[in-house]
Amino acid sequence: MTDLAPTDSTESGVVGYDRTALAAAATAHAESLRPANTVDAFRADWAWWEHWCGGRGIDPATVDSALVEAYAYWLWHSANAPLTTARRRLTGLAAGLRARLGADAVPRGLATQARKNLSAYARESAEAGERRRGRQRGKAPAATVDVIRAMVDTCDSSLAGLRDRALVLIGFAVAGRRSELAGLFAADITTEPEGLVVAIHTSKLASSRREVAVPYSARPGTCPVRAWQAWRDAAGLVDGDPAFVPIDRHGSMTVKPLSGQAVGEIITRRATAAGVEHRLTGHSLRRGLATESRRAGHDLAAIARQGGWTPGSKDLHGYLEVIDRWEDNAAAGVL
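The structure assignment produced for this chain is given below.
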């Protein structure tokens, strides 16, 4: 750590220390010793904090313990984070602030009360008999809107980042199966004044397809139309090219289709990078669109049309039942 060496003062003739440089060097050295998985976790924690602040018009660089308490409340009650995950998110938040503002600007007790609050929330949940939170098995969990936004926040401006952002957002908007997303070509995605029209091949027969309209989003950062245009332009795709192609670790692109398995792996990887506890799969986007559309008030016919379900689909009804049992409950307001 040569940066921690004393500095000579030529005017006074005494040896002294640059306190600011010393603190910065010590912080940098400590960060360099962190395992790669810890660094990745902290990066994901900061992305969640930025996502939460961005949705509320708050500068993520704000140092305010009351704000951290509000964030902790959201983590527990809205994001449904397990206690260990919520606590680590607070640690990652503090680490992110120190990295950006300097150690002196962030008090050690910034998240103390928020942590106490989380413990209280956990006790209340346990007393109420709430099921233990954590990784689920069985059916693919739905990718909710909050999860989609967190996944997109992990995508940078590299070719892989632009591709993954477009893949996640379009996959969600069309409720696409991973095989359907892998089978898309650039020519299948056309731009109209209102947004995109995506022609999805539902089998190996060229004549078997459904067309899905994808409107612009009010949020530019999670707009599938803008995401597709940015990826298409950066990759230089033409109509005969696959819509989504492999990119190696050096950022080199191969103009061939992704496999369905590769699509699923991208979705799982982005969810993991975003700190999502449940293991998302390619089907999570499809289920997420159905459940979030129902929550937004869209009727069964519109949801079925968007995802290519038959109105009597058991799968679709199973997805919607999760929402309907609370949103359209026959006992609500009766007693």
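Interim note for the steering committee: Residues 34-127 form a domain with the DNA polymerase; domain 1 fold (CATH 1.10.150). Residues 1-15, 29-36, 203-207 have pLDDT under 50 and may be disordered.
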